[in-house]
Amino acid sequence: MNDLQSELVSAIQNYVATSPLNRLRDLDGSPIWEQPLVGFAGGDDPLFELYKSVVAPDHWTPRQALAELVGGPGDPSAFPHVGVVSWILPTAALTKLSNREMADGPSVRWNQTRFQGEEFNDSLRRYVVDWLRAKGLLAVAPVIHPDFHRTQGPYGLASTWSERHIAFAAGLGTFSLSDGLITAKGIAHRCGSVVANVDWPATPRPYSDHREYCPYAQDGSCGACIERCPAKAIGPLGHDKDRCDRHQTVTLADWRQRPGYIGEYLACGLCQTGVPCESEIPGAT
To answer: Alpha helix (H) ranges present in the chain?
Structure first.
């Protein structure tokens, strides 16, 4: 890690620790997210081309994101160097505890964390973009750019920039049976990232398999997320995104009328709590 990266990690950590936006404003004002994990990737990592077949054909590479979204020449080869910074925002312990006790849908604290927490995540994206631009770099947060959109991939609903796949490339975690990302702080979190025209060393990926941290994927053990899913959207073959989406948008639609619930859907998250990978890598020492 070079000096620029060290400064950026400290800036991200400080923003998470001090921003008033990182608070559950409609509940008790407690923090939404705990101290983040931060990783880095090189923009020309072959993984990013692979994502066009794994995530969606129109998933951006970092070079495409920078060229198309910054409003420059539109030529991905125009930049000598491209780098990515990715972060994990671990969910607060009290929020995980509240969701652990639920069986059909999310707790109010979990639901508000999903939507108010993503508002904070967007503010962090803007902060990192401004921080890098103040260093004289071009920078963009693809997820909050107007051209970002949902799309259809080979495994169902996808997007033009998958934060979980970016975090995987940046050495921050591997995928679970439920499609979540298991990190050193567990699976209950949100991800974010920013792309810049910068040359920095990549964070080593301490894994060789994309599901290395998932016990079920490795040897058939665990499977707790299968039992936790009220929609039966998780099974031995993985995660049915469409069934999961229907549960949150249709089955639980009336929950939006209950006191305290916000957002356009419920954001279930039961498969991320009450499971061995909730707050750590299972079996990690």
So the answer is: 3-18, 47-54, 62-69, 93-100, 108-134, 163-169, 215-219, 224-228, 241-246
What is the distance between the alpha carbons of residues 238 and 140, in angstroms, rounded to a whole number? 32
Please name which of 235, 234, 192, 241 lies closest in space to residue 89, comparing C-alpha atoms. 192
> Which one-letter DSSP state was computed for residue 152?
E
Instruction: Provide the domain limits for residue 225.
Output: 3-272
Task: Report the predicted TM-score, pTM, of the whole model to 2 decimal places.
Answer: 0.94
Tell me the C-alpha distance between 82 and 44, whole Å: 7
In a domain, residue 185? The reply is yes
C-beta of residue 160 within 8 angstroms of C-beta of residue 60: yes
Who contacts 38 (Cβ-Cβ below 8 Å, separation ≥6)?
8, 9, 12, 13, 85, 86, 87, 88
Distance, in Å, from the CA atom of 121 to the CA atom of 87, rounded to the nearest integer, reads 10
User: Within the chain, which residues score under 70 in pLDDT?
Assistant: 71-75, 285
The answer as to whether 161 is a domain residue is yes
